[in-house]
Amino acid sequence: MSTYIIFEQEEWDSSWREAYGAPTGALLKKYGGKVLAASREGERIEGEGKAPTVTVLIEFPDHEAAKAWHSDPEYQPLIELRNTGSKAEALLFNGV
């Protein structure tokens, strides 16, 4: 069963993106992950608060692969890098 991670980010500085992109993409590939959607044009249609400045939806082949990607030691410094210019909330959930 596919598993998904959705990131909602508040980004105030995009200078980290160039150094983040390629290594994160390689790690996604390592775990069978693929970005299904990424947008700076989200619109909150339910709930409170403003929409995130960036929303990303990633698909993985299963729950274990998604967790392994996110906890990979090579990804940890990339999270720290991302946090220099944004704050993210991530939600892991299984498909139907």
Report the end-to-end length measured between terminal Cα atoms. 7 Å
- Which spans of ≥5 residues are poorly predicted at pLDDT below 50? none
CATH class call? Alpha Beta
- Kindly state the percentage of residues in helix: 25-40%
Number of strands: 4
Mean pLDDT, to the nearest integer, reads 96
Q: Which band does the percent of strand residues land in?
A: 25-35%
Shape label? globular
Evaluate the radius of gyration: 13 Å
SSE series: EHEEHHE
Number of helices: 3
SSE class: alpha+beta
The CATH topology is given as Alpha-Beta Plaits
| The CATH architecture | 2-Layer Sandwich
**Strand order of the biggest β-sheet:** 2-3-1-4
Taking the sheet with the most strands, its summary is: 4 strands, antiparallel
Structural domain count: 1
Mind explaining what this structure looks like?
By secondary structure, the protein is an alpha+beta fold. The protein has one domain: 2-Layer Sandwich (Alpha-Beta Plaits). The chain is 31% helix and 32% strand. The chain has helices spanning 17-30, 63-71, 76-82; strands at residues 3-11, 34-39, 54-60, 86-94. The protein has a four-stranded antiparallel sheet with strand order 2-3-1-4. The longest helix has 14 residues, at 17-30. The protein is globular.
Features:
alpha+beta, single chain, 32% strand, 3 helices, four-stranded antiparallel sheet, Alpha-Beta Plaits, 96 residues
In short:
The chain is an alpha+beta fold. The protein is 31% helix and 32% strand. It has helices at residues 17-30, 63-71, 76-82, and strands spanning 3-11, 34-39, 54-60, 86-94.
